[in-house]
Amino acid sequence: MVNKFEDELKQTALKVASAGKGILAADESIGTIGKRFAPIDVENNQENRRKYRQFLFETKGLSEYISGAILFEETLFDKTPEGKPLVEILKENDIIPGIKVDKGQASIMNAAEGETSTQGLDGLGARCAEYYKQGARFAKWRAVIKIDASTGAPTDLAIAEQTNGLARYASICQENGLVPIVEPEVLMDGDHSIEVSAEVTERVWHAQFKALADHKVLFEGILLKPNMVRSGADCAEPADMATVAAFTLRTLQRVVPPAVPGINFLSGGMSEEEATIALNEINRAPGKKPWNISFSYGRALQASVLQEWKGSDDNIPAAQETLLARSKANGEAQLGKYGGGAGGAAANTSTYQKNYSY
Ligand code: 13P
Predict the structure, then answer these.
(1) Which atom of ligand 1 is nearest to the CA of 302?
(2) Alpha carbon separation from 311 to 48, 71, 85, 305, 358 (Å, rounded)
(3) Nearest residue to 289 via CA among 248, 321, 325, 322
(4) 91 and 97 Cβ atoms separated by less than 8 Å
(5) Could you tell me if the CB of 98 is within 6 A of ligand 1?
(6) Quick one: CA torsion of 346, 182, 186, 63, rounded to 10 degrees?
(7) What CA–CA distance (Å, rounded) separates 31 from 35?
(8) DSSP letter string, 201-255
(9) Chain centroid offset of residue 46 CA
């Protein structure tokens, strides 16, 4: 079928994948943002969620480093007290609005313990059409894959289920004018080595691109949001950043077609500084890179900002300055030019949580 959105999808994907820019993932579900607000004593109500997202989007100069922002559904339809839609703020600031469309994870009964399938395909086409009308131009769907030698995870069943779900989601998005961010996240939970992570990640990505091809998804109109290839969070001898960069780049080169315009890594529990340095190393590593290799960070762009803000209006300018500084650092890392030391109150604090949900 000819897709009337084909040219637009390609343009949107290319614009998000601009040199020196990446994505701000601010799409925490209501439950998850509550977990972020709790340590800084901010009540998880609609007004505070709106206020927080509004000041993130109003940060002056943000679009120099941020090309797209992923929103939770509530934020896509939210307005300032003066009645201005938050999406308008993004558009005026030259940041493309995106929308998280998955509905979280449900367990797969006969897979390994704890393996899940991402929910949200029912009615997705109609939702995408609504989101497009409201101004969204790209979408996100997160599918998690666990590594656990004691249970046999990941199983072929879970990989098939998750990658096929992502491919079906991607085709529905493209049918409705949204660029799908394809996010198969191999979790960093576990004590496995980087070699095991590389093997599993490569296996998952091969299955992912086969599924995308089976669904005839337009590769020029997607963005890949993967994990970096790293040792497990509890690995006794974690690999250094240069090794992470080498394994990650090798895996990208082996699997991801050059037709895909952008790779936007998730931070997955790394500290802000670690996530920035890792991206910088990948972009500095020798070898072929036919894609814009960048970031789509949630935790690694917001940890210090939340610490600065603490729910007080007086702290908003300082919190915005921190967001700008961390975004700039990541923008430089996209170019392989980050010199270190961008700062931030929580820059070196791990954002890792076991069994994290978004
Ligand atoms: P983190 O950068 O916090 O891993 O999350 C990004 C994201 O959007 C996960 O779906």
Answers:
(1) 3
(2) 8, 20, 21, 11, 21
(3) 248
(4) yes
(5) no
(6) -10
(7) 7
(8) HHHHHHHHHHHHHHTT--GGG-EE-PPP----TT-SSPPPHHHHHHHHHHHHHHH
(9) 23
- Could you give the 3-state DSSP secondary structure of residue 97? strand
- Going along the chain from its start, the domains and CATH numbers come out as 6-338 (3.20.20.70)
Cβ neighbourhood burial of 123 (10 Å; 0-12, 13-18, 19+)? exposed
Give me ligand 1 centre to Cα 248, in Å: 17
Whole-angstrom distance, CA of residue 60 vs CA of residue 92: 11
CB of 123 closer than 8 Å to CB of 140 = no
Reduced to 3 states, what is the DSSP secondary structure of residue 195?
Answer: helix
182, 162 Cβ separation under 8 angstroms: no
25 CB within 6 A, ligand 1: yes
**Nearest-CA neighbor of 246 among 195, 278, 282?**
282
Q: Which of 219, 215, 188, 216 is nearest to 201 (CA)?
A: 188
Alpha-carbon distance of 269 to 254, in angstroms, equals 25
Instruction: Give the model's pLDDT for residue 358.
Output: 67
> Is the Cβ–Cβ distance between 329 and 276 less than 8 Å?
yes
DSSP string, 122-145: TTHHHHHHHHHHTT--EEEEEEEE
pLDDT digits (tens, 9 = 90+) for 99-112: 999 999 999 999 99
Angle at 286 between CA 282 and CA 290, to 5 degrees: 75
pLDDT along the chain (358 residues), means of 10: 94 98 98 97 98 98 98 98 98 98 97 98 98 98 98 98 99 98 98 98 98 98 98 97 98 98 96 97 97 98 98 98 98 97 85 74
Q: How far is the CA of 267 from the centre of ligand 1 (A)?
A: 6
Cα-to-centroid distance, 296 and ligand 1 (Å): 7
Q: Which helix (H) or strand (E) holds 295?
A: strand 292-297
Q: Containing H/E element for 70?
A: strand 66-71
Active centre residues (catalytic): 183, 225
Distance CA 280, CA 357 (A): 26
